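Hi L.,

You mentioned the student needs an example of a multi-chain input paired with its predicted structure. This one should do, with 936 residues in total across all chains.
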Amino acid sequence: MGAVKSKRVPRAVREQQMLDAAVLTFARRGYRAASMDEIAELAGVSKPLVYLYLNSKEDLFNTVIRRESAALVAAVRSAVEPGAAADRQLCSGLKGFFAHTAEHPYGWAVLHQQARTHGEPFAREVAALRAEIVAFVTELLGAAAKEAGCVGELAEREVAGLAHALVGAAESLAEWANVRTDEGTSGDPEHPSAKDTAATMMNFAWMGLNQLMGGERWAPGGLVDHESGSCARR
Amino acid sequence: MGAVKSKRVPRAVREQQMLDAAVLTFARRGYRAASMDEIAELAGVSKPLVYLYLNSKEDLFNTVIRRESAALVAAVRSAVEPGAAADRQLCSGLKGFFAHTAEHPYGWAVLHQQARTHGEPFAREVAALRAEIVAFVTELLGAAAKEAGCVGELAEREVAGLAHALVGAAESLAEWANVRTDEGTSGDPEHPSAKDTAATMMNFAWMGLNQLMGGERWAPGGLVDHESGSCARR
Amino acid sequence: MGAVKSKRVPRAVREQQMLDAAVLTFARRGYRAASMDEIAELAGVSKPLVYLYLNSKEDLFNTVIRRESAALVAAVRSAVEPGAAADRQLCSGLKGFFAHTAEHPYGWAVLHQQARTHGEPFAREVAALRAEIVAFVTELLGAAAKEAGCVGELAEREVAGLAHALVGAAESLAEWANVRTDEGTSGDPEHPSAKDTAATMMNFAWMGLNQLMGGERWAPGGLVDHESGSCARR
Amino acid sequence: MGAVKSKRVPRAVREQQMLDAAVLTFARRGYRAASMDEIAELAGVSKPLVYLYLNSKEDLFNTVIRRESAALVAAVRSAVEPGAAADRQLCSGLKGFFAHTAEHPYGWAVLHQQARTHGEPFAREVAALRAEIVAFVTELLGAAAKEAGCVGELAEREVAGLAHALVGAAESLAEWANVRTDEGTSGDPEHPSAKDTAATMMNFAWMGLNQLMGGERWAPGGLVDHESGSCARR
DNA sequence: AATGAATGAGCCTTCATTCAT
DNA sequence: AATGAATGAAGGCTCATTCAT
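Structure written out for the whole complex:
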């Protein structure tokens, strides 16, 4: 039913077919509800073969998570220009992120929705991925602060909080953009492209960060100059 | 094992005990992996009683979702002062949100992580909750734009995108704050309080929004004045 | 839901209400599928009361069987005139049988369909009922043979077989007549009345019996005179 | 415990073993009381295999009913000689029926006792079987009437009633013969053979029918000539 | 006379996993 | 390289039955 039956396929290829089937099935059903039967059928092979190659359901899920994690990280990393200014790096990273999640919705669903919700072994794997991305963002924010000549006003905890907020906002937008995309016509030129979504994120986040680095803080009733402008605004 | 065994309890009370046990179990294991046996044991009753009162696993999960949704919405709604300025409303709403999610981490986990990942019947319920919150935020942003004298510069889609980003950021921070809390000593006075987290969010988001309303946009290389300053900055 | 709730009813009455509910439920669902919950609800009482009065599901079913058996036997017995000719007795007995089964379809369903199909304890009870009726019929056939001056030509086994055939035919017609009745309008004057059905049975059976007693037998190719006409034909 | 354990059996064979076990179990316990565990054990396999091959208890029961129905119909059909006289056809059909039910008592019990008593899905299946047989008999009676030169005196309803009576009588005799058989020694040469039972039926029914076709009817007090002998008696 | 609260036991069904070829 | 045959274990759900009032 799934793939066309082609016998005698080399192992490496078969494994990828199985992983593809697994990604789709895990995304659609969730880890527990996905059955090895369904995955095997979708991959066009018998169940014992899945076990021969991937050992167990748990191993299979882990392999899936790792493959999708690696692909996402690679996409983001390859999108940024190493030497550029921090804001450009952030923007191009976001663009890469949105583009990849839009192109691999099932992989993203597995990472974002399924892997976190099914107990320790998997959650850790995805937490590591997220931590890596958050660290990357935190680094960029630090670099940006330095570029802007801002010295030490942003406490580490504050930076970490901002990075988490930024990543959460990006995740939320990724989902929103995908849903919007699904609704429109497939070739809809109106749907928010990765570039547009990245721009929205930058508009939302960067300018506020900029001001934060300038020492301004929000307070009920208006802005306050938290610390005298020891931090040059760009 | 769970609660102290107290025999012959009126139905209304037992039902709440069961729902409490269910929240905890669903949060820990996920919908599929949670067994009715475990829930019943945790509630200190036999399984048939759970079925007698809550009908089925699906009904139980739905009831849990609705109870937790209602509690969250009530917490947020009761936190905002209806007549106040938009930024104050947003801030107090966030504070209510962070406080509630911190106090009810399992309920929040069920809503945020589990309900969305387990098929149509539940996902819709939570999608409705999220839509309600996003709508609330969108409304606040619109009001803020009006207050700021900003007329029409922010396209509807842009506002919606911002609202989604904001909600996503808040969700991410809620999780982050909770984890931080869990790790520290239980009574840790250092852990980010709801007030602190709300302040972080406001700092991250509000100032950027403010500038957006002022017509400024981020662009590679620096800020640009997208439209001549037709929108007074506060 | 079932009966109107009337509290404080004397035991004898309540028991009959329960038995009525049980007859209906057992007929509709079968012994195993009928739940004590449904019976109790239909009787308008709580389950413990059913247990208090009728002890157990098995006892309840037995009580039902005995009540319905007794009613059927009484109906048949009271329909025949003790002193009449054998054929008249048989005819009026059949009339009583068809009339009673038509008036008490649920009771008849329990006896005919349910009680026989659910293991030893109940099957025996109904077998006894059937044996009683078969014995009654056998007796009538014997009397008829004697009346007809037929002496000993009908072997006992043959008579017993005929009685069984006759009873089976009557049961089958009872069902058929009831179904026919259900289909027609409730007051349908066309549907086969008990009298008509009894007549059909008599036409079907009696005349053949008559000839049997006359010594004739069926054989491929035509009738044969099994024994020289030592048995006067009426 | 049931069959001798023989591992690795092809599916088609296993399925028949399972169906055999199911027939026996359903006949002994009834549909509801029969457990899949018992059936599986009797078939010498594990429960999951039963589900793998037969899908569900309901499907299993349906498959059983259809297999046994088909076998019974085939036995009866193959017993009659198509071109023969109506009475010979009826007699040989009955012989086939009694022989088959005697050889397959459990199959017959499932059809006759269990399937009719367990709700719509199954009852319909068996009702169809019975209707087929009744139709066959009705046809034979009609043919016999024509052969006998009887024109139209037997109303359709009357014929249908007679056919039902005949089938009911046959069913009753089948059960009676089986019980008798069970009680006697297994190889008892005295127990009523299918041939004998068929003869009893023919004696019981055919001669009466013959007279009915001759226009005679039973009436209290004696026979009457319902219509002047327009119908030649054989 | 009557009931709300509660449970032990069992059944249908499914699933991850292995064996033998 | 690949599969048809088979199962131990567990989970959702229901039911007859009892306890305490």
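You could point out the following to them. Confidence is low (pLDDT under 50) at residues 184-190, 228-234 of chain C. The CA atoms of residues 78 and 155 of chain C lie 30 Å apart.

Best wishes,
N.
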